[in-house]
């Protein structure tokens, strides 16, 4: 079982900052880390990558940020100098750092973030820390999966397989974009939330899901997301698409898990697109933050549970089995 310990405060690197954490989300990726699915994690380790807070100290080469700034970060913190970064695709940076994975994360009072001028996102005045904390991982990932990859348009059908934090975010974002949403989960409580966030149709999966979606949507979804990261939901997501449909893989499928068997014959016959989504770079946050500021998107409504740091170890370990529906937020 992980536990809560007193450790030395981090210091900022020359290009980095230290952020005083005000809120940090509990995410399935943290659970994967805890389960040992990420070989980069060495013990002892501090998880946590969905954070918002206040800059406590900035390194000498940071020009855009200073102590007192209210900020969040994408979970992929980019280097700003590699070819991917030069192309504006910081979410797939070749030398990325990730708090909670490549170094100690935000289930703590303070967290260090590298390359602050590339990665920090200032929070609009009206946006609270708890709502902002989820933006860097699940909400931005769902947003970019639907907009940049899914290219979702009003009136189209979107299927969301798995209604945890990222899935519920996707339901909310797709509905706000004018799409009609089919939400799939095994948990009736998660489906109740999906309905509240704008899903037209809720299906208890995973059996018979592609067939039912084809029926409900009159031929299949235009865009479908595996928001869980499971061979079954991945295959269902591809199989529920109509011709020329787009599958976006959002949930992690760690290499240690059973490999997903993709129906490539269907991918060819229907000319499907199979796309991966790996977060969203800091420079792309503007349109999403505008929708949040306008109240069109309400990340605050995803938070169903708020706990302190002392309760975090148990909540992390429970994620595989008994975690509550919606998003659990930790406020150190
Ligand atoms: Zn996350
Ligand atoms: Zn880079």
UniProtKB/TrEMBL annotation:
It comes from Actinoallomurus iriomotensis. Keywords: Metal-binding, Oxidoreductase, Zinc. Its cofactor is Zn(2+). InterPro entries: ADH-like_C, ADH-like_N, ADH_Zn_CS, ER, GroES-like_sf, NAD(P)-bd_dom_sf, Zn_alcohol_dh. This is Alcohol dehydrogenase. Belongs to the zinc-containing alcohol dehydrogenase family. One of its GO terms (molecular function) is oxidoreductase activity. Residues 3-330 form the Enoyl reductase (ER) domain. Pfam families: ADH_N (PF08240), ADH_zinc_N (PF00107).
């Amino acid at each position: 079982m992980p536990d809560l310990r007193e450790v030395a405060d981090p210091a900022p690197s020359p290009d980095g900052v230290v952020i005083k954490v005000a809120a940090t989300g509990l995410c399935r990726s943290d659970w994967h880390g805890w389960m040992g699915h990420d070989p980069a994690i060495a013990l002892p380790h501090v998880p946590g990558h969905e954070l918002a807070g206040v800059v406590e100290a900035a390194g000498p080469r940071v020009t855009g940020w200073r102590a007192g700034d209210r900020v969040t970060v994408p979970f992929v913190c980019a280097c700003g100098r590699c070819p991917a970064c030069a192309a504006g695709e910081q979410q797939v940076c070749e030398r990325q750092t990730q708090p909670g994975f490549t170094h100690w994360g935000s289930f703590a009072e303070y967290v260090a973030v590298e390359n602050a001028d590339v990665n920090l996102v200032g929070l609009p005045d009206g946006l609270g820390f708890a709502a902002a904390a989820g933006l860097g991982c699940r909400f931005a990932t769902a947003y970019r999966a639907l907009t940049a990859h899914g290219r979702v348009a009003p009136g189209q059908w979107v299927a969301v397989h798995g209604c945890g934090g990222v899935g519920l975010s996707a339901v909310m974002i797709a509905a706000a974009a004018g799409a009609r949403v089919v939400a799939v989960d095994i948990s009736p409580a998660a489906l109740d939330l999906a309905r509240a966030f704008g899903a037209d149709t809720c299906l208890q999966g995973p059996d018979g899901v592609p067939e039912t979606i084809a029926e409900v949507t009159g031929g299949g979804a235009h865009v479908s997301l595996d928001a869980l990261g499971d061979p079954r939901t991945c295959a269902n997501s591809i199989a529920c698409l109509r011709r020329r449909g787009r599958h976006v893989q959002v949930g992690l499928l760690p290499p240690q898990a059973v490999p997903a068997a993709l129906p490539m014959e269907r991918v060819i016959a229907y000319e499907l697109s199979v796309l991966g989504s790996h977060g969203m770079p800091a420079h792309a946050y503007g349109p999403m933050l505008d929708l949040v500021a306008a109240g069109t998107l309400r990340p605050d409504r995803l938070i169903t549970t708020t706990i302190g740091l002392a309760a975090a170890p148990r909540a992390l370990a429970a994620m595989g089995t008994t975690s509550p529906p919606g998003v659990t937020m930790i406020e150190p």
